[in-house]
Design goal:
By secondary structure, this protein is α+β, with helices and mostly antiparallel strands. The protein contains 18 helices and 11 strands.
């Protein structure tokens, strides 16, 4: 779902987000200034804890203001930022804020659940270990911690190592295999050392990252297995063997199954929306249309060829079994976003599972997002909703049981300033 057909919207590219602001400003508080600095650090590409990123912006504040005052002369420096235009826009805001005693900011400050997929998995199972490691109830950096002690088959610096491990474990938690990760996610990083590797070398790199995740957060594998089994039980049913199996070619211990009539999965999100997912085989079709400019054909006319994929009625069961891993987490993310919008009394912008608000509202937004995340998992137990709707099982809902503490630890962490579930 997109906000507008216009290319200038907050779901657009870096430049689009950089030039969009709120119609009215809000006075920048001390906390607001801190979050403005954090936003600048995030846009530049700094990593680490919130305090570390804020300290980076504070220590480099004179340089950031210089970028704002002389953007053309300093282009080679600020253009190295991860999100260069949003970074420059943050520098401009910081320059104006430091030049006035009372300043009203219109700049949207972005918030995002750090490691949201792993945080949802931790909450689904009440897993303390993953909750701490994913920045949910204790301050931590999941990907930095994961790379400690990792010995990949390619030389990487610290920043590259973090990017590589993230490009491996995140798509894996959503159902991608090592071959897909190597072919798509690792290549997209455009890291020289990885670009020089062979296909098999990249696969081995992906496999080593997956193995590392299995040691660091074994509950993720449990989530993958359970959601896959839920889809499998919907799509297949066991068949009791008839008569003697003597002379049959069936391998011992392998159950015979037949396909059910199910061609899609359906479940209700904690916000009341229905999700329908299916995986179908597609056929490629080609259509040639007249075009005014390029592609002159033999008859002297100009054509363009349109390639389209037509969905067939053939259900890809493996695609459905793998796809539910990501689709379910995304549906819980969507429920969180729905509830945030329903219960927020100040201006916010939504972009996928992230939000943006005035700098002086960020602290309130973080608390609100924490409360909504808690409520979604405590009151609805999303994994039980999935089992109920897909398999027709009567499942209990309510507060999940934690190993050594309960979900109220989120409250405590938020009160003492350690909860990072609303920021990355």
């Amino acid at each position: 779902m997109y906000l507008s057909k216009s290319p200038l919207n907050y779901q657009g590219d870096d430049l689009s987000r950089a030039v969009i602001e709120f119609s009215s400003g809000k006075r920048l508080t001390k906390d607001g200034l801190m979050y403005l600095r954090l936003h600048a650090a995030n846009c530049f590409g700094e990593t680490g804890t919130i305090d570390q990123r804020v300290d980076w912006a504070r220590q480099n504040e004179k340089q950031l203001i210089r970028y704002a005052k002389k953007p053309i002369e300093t282009f080679k420096d600020w253009s190295k930022a991860k999100h260069q235009f949003r970074f420059l826009r943050a520098c401009l805001e910081l320059r104006d804020a430091r030049a006035k005693k009372s300043f009203s900011s219109r700049l949207p400050i972005e918030l995002d659940q750090s490691n949201s997929a792993f945080q949802h998995i931790a909450l689904l199972y009440g897993n303390d270990e993953l909750a701490e490691r994913s920045n949910l109830i204790a301050s931590s950096d999941f990907y930095d911690d994961l790379t400690k002690g990792w010995e990949p088959n390619v030389k990487l610096n610290e920043k590259e190592g973090r990017a590589v491990i993230k490009a491996i474990v995140l798509p894996y938690s959503y159902g991608a295999g090592a071959a897909t990760i190597a072919k798509e996610n690792l290549i997209d990083l455009d890291i020289p050392g990885i670009n020089r590797m062979t296909d098999e070398g990249r696969k081995e790199l992906a496999r080593s990252g997956v193995a590392l995740l299995g040691q660091y957060a074994p509950i993720v594998e449990q989530y993958k297995t359970e959601t896959k089994q839920i889809a499998h039980q919907l799509l297949w049913k066991p068949v009791k063997p008839s008569g003697s199996s003597k002379g049959s070619n069936r391998r011992k211990g392998k159950k015979k199954e037949i396909r059910t009539s199910a061609d899609r999965m359906r479940w209700t999100t904690p916000s009341g929306f229905e999700v329908h997912t299916s995986s179908r085989q597609t056929e490629i079709g080609y259509v040639r249309i007249y075009k005014a400019r390029r592609g002159v054909s033999k008859d002297g006319r100009r054509y363009a060829q349109i390639v389209a994929r037509h969905r067939t009625n053939i259900v890809l069961t493996r695609g459905m079994e793998i796809g539910v891993m990501a689709n379910f987490i995304h549906s819980v993310d969507a429920a969180v976003a729905h509830w945030v919008f329903c219960q927020t009394d100040f201006p916010i912008i939504s972009i996928q599972d992230a939000f943006a608000c005035h700098a002086s509202n960020v602290h309130k937004m973080r608390e609100h997002l924490s409360s909504v995340l808690e409520m979604v998992h405590r009151d609805y137990t999303p994994l039980n909703l999935l089992k109920r709707d897909v398999l027709g099982k009567k499942m209990p809902t309510g507060l999940i049981t934690w190993n050594s503490s309960d979900i109220q630890a989120i409250h405590l962490a938020r009160e003492v300033g350690h909860s990072q579930i609303a920021f990355s």
